Amino acid sequence: MLESYEELDAAYEELMADEKELKPQGDELQKNQRALYISEQHYKLAVEGANDGIGDWDIENNNLFLSPKLKQI
Q1: Domain residue ranges of the chain, discontinuous segments joined by +
Q2: For position 49, what pLDDT does the model report?
């Protein structure tokens, strides 16, 4: 029983150390996700507010983006 408790305690200590190591990375990821969301919202606002047709072609992935105004034209 004592051996099982010691193994459990060691596993707990390892998990706590891993959490301490990963928390800053998780915080940084959340910060970057928030910045990306804000950037996407600004881009969307600019595209929708422009009175011009805007297009973008990602040749590498063969993705084509056409703004609603460009589609209308």
Answers
A1: 2-72
A2: 82
